[in-house]
């Protein structure tokens, strides 16, 4: 079998799966899934992004690579650009870096940087709510674990709720020039690095 590796820029409001599933949405309007964007058969997402998150996903039919990148025992970096309410002060950034406690469970230490300006992202559809009285800031966060809604819970725990969340890198793979809804096959070099994991 030929192994395939696909990089996909998941847009906002798209499910990280190839089918609707058995439970219809409450408003009876079908939700977009990966099959609405990626016409490659027999590949599956490595991990997931919530419906309200955006960014890089890796899709593959290589079970061992999928396992290594999904299993928390094999920590690998995932980098996110995170728009939060207010500008976190040094104390809040230190808390995020050291790990925070969420529902009795402490997150691993991570890398967090306050970005000087908004990153070069396409506008989100629909746009983020704009409230003049509440300033926002952008963080770059790199984690080596991926618990459910972890980034959102971490920023909320230090008083800075997440407004927009975009994954920009998984290990050595990055969004590059992909735009929301676009996909591409990995390059030979990217594929070889995945196989060495």
TrEMBL record:
Entry-linked InterPro entries: PsdUridine_s_RsuA/RluB/E/F_cat (IPR042092), PsdUridine_synth_cat_dom_sf (IPR020103), PsdUridine_synth_RsuA/RluA (IPR006145), PsdUridine_synth_RsuA/RluB/E/F (IPR000748), PsdUridine_synth_RsuA/RluB_CS (IPR018496), RsuA_PseudoU_synthase (IPR050343), TruA/RsuA/RluB/E/F_N (IPR020094)
Gene Ontology biological process terms in this record: pseudouridine synthesis; rRNA processing
Presence of the UniProt keyword Hydrolase in the record: no
Domain Pseudouridine synthase RsuA/RluA-like: 5-157
Domain of life: Bacteria
The EC number(s) this enzyme carries: 5.4.99.-
GO molecular-function term, one example from the UniProt record: catalytic activity, acting on RNA
Gene3D superfamilies: Alpha-L RNA-binding motif, Pseudouridine synthase I, catalytic domain, N-terminal subdomain
Keywords of this entry: Isomerase
Top-level class of the enzyme under EC nomenclature: isomerase
Family statement: Belongs to the pseudouridine synthase RsuA family.
Protein name in UniProt: Pseudouridine synthase
Record organism: Shackletoniella antarctica
């Amino acid at each position: 079998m030929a192994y395939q590796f696909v990089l996909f820029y998941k847009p906002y409001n798209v499910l990280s799966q190839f089918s609707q599933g058995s439970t219809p949405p409450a408003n009876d309007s079908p939700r977009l899934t990966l099959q609405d964007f990626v016409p490659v058969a027999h590949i599956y997402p490595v991990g997931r992004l919530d419906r309200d998150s955006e960014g890089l996903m890796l899709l593959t039919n290589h079970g061992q690579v999928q396992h290594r990148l999904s299993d928390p025992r094999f920590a690998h970096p995932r980098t996110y650009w995170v728009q939060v309410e207010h500008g976190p002060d040094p104390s809040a950034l230190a808390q995020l870096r050291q790990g925070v406690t969420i529902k009795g469970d402490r997150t691993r230490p991570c890398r967090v940087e306050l970005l000087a300006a908004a990153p070069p992202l396409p506008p989100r559809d629909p746009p983020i709510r704009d409230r003049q009285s509440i300033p926002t800031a952008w963080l770059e966060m790199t984690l080596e674990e991926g618990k459910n809604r972890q980034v959102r819970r971490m920023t909320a725990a230090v008083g800075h709720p997440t407004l927009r969340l975009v994954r920009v890198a998984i290990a050595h793979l990055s969004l590059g020039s992909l735009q929301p809804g676009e996909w591409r096959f990995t390059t030979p070099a990217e594929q070889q690095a995945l196989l060495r994991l």
